[in-house]
Amino acid sequence: MAQPSIGAQASRLARDFTLNGVSRTRMPKLVYGTAWKKDETANLVYTALKVGFRGIDTAAQPKHYDEQGVGAGLKKAVLEGVVKREDVFIQTKFTPPSGQNENAPYDFSASVQDKVHQSVQSSLKNFTIVGQNAYLDSLVLHSPLDTLDDTIVAWKTLEGYHPHKIRNLGISNATLGIIEALYSRVTVKPAIVQNRFYPDTDYEAGLRVFCKEHNVKFQSFWTIGANPHLIKSQPVMNVVQGAGVGVVSAYYALVMGLEGITILDGTTKEAHMKEDLEGLEHVGAWADGDGEATWKKALGEFKQLIKEP
């Protein structure tokens, strides 16, 4: 029997987002990241879905992702009744030539439009389940193209698949200036921005303000790897002690407490998958109840630590 998403539960912190597009897609606060999983991709995706993840991030970029393996893991979970396809948020990416190797899912000599079409068709094939119409909950430009004009061309090509084959569009590895320019020139507005969460960009504070003002959700990556000082910080330890959860769960909860943020979680250990999902819900219930004062204090101190405006 298909299991409910952790994000469907009650706590405000763990509750799924509803994206701003016409499809009103639900996106979990924790999305399983599949970069660099190689031959283990299918098994890890299946395991992630089995333990409760309901969001999966991949890319049409064989250099770093096995999108076909992600599709295989999803199909296995659907066919075994672990999940229903409509209950899983599937996100992939169009990766420009600068991020590809010789195994790219398109012809390097093709036009921008044709590269996008070839990549999208390849992705839809990877996520085709027998007897169901293939679709993607989100497709993200993995990075801006060489010029803003080419970026707009790629985006407008993707708009042709919206809202049925691609339900939401987003962009990754982009500056606030590029995102503002894109936003002003396209018909289907971005629902998602996926960027690093780290000190070099001031944790994208300015960009996250833009996202909040325009109801765009921010997806955070490098959340752990780039921030060892934050993970060991006092606000995190206060949540660990108060809520009785692990360090990673406490840290993820504080990042989500900044609002409008989903975190990409790429753990390869089943036990950690469970801990991350259950820990987030546990912190959320604690913060909604007896731990409210301690949570608010820790969150305030965490915001000061990252110089949140």
The gist of it:
The protein is 41% helix and 13% strand. With 309 residues, the protein is of the alpha/beta class. It has a domain at 17-190: TIM Barrel, CATH 3.20.20.100.
Indicate the topology.
Blueprint: E1 17-18, E2 26-27, E3 30-33, H1 41-51, E4 55-57, H2 67-79, E5 89-94, H3 112-126, E6 138-141, H4 148-159, E7 169-172, H5 176-185, E8 192-196, H6 205-213, E9 217-221, H7 228-231, H8 234-243, H9 247-256, E10 261-265, H10 270-288, H11 292-305
Parallel strand pairs: 3-4, 3-10, 4-5, 5-6, 6-7, 7-8, 8-9, 9-10
Antiparallel strand pairs: 1-2
Helix pairs in contact: 1-2, 3-4, 8-9, 8-11, 9-10
Structure report:
With 309 residues, the protein is of the alpha/beta class. It has a domain of 174 residues: Alpha-Beta Barrel (TIM Barrel). It is built from 11 helices and 10 strands. Strand 3, helix 1 and strand 4 form a beta-alpha-beta unit. The longest helix has 19 residues. It is globular, with a radius of gyration of 19 Å. 49% of the residues are buried.
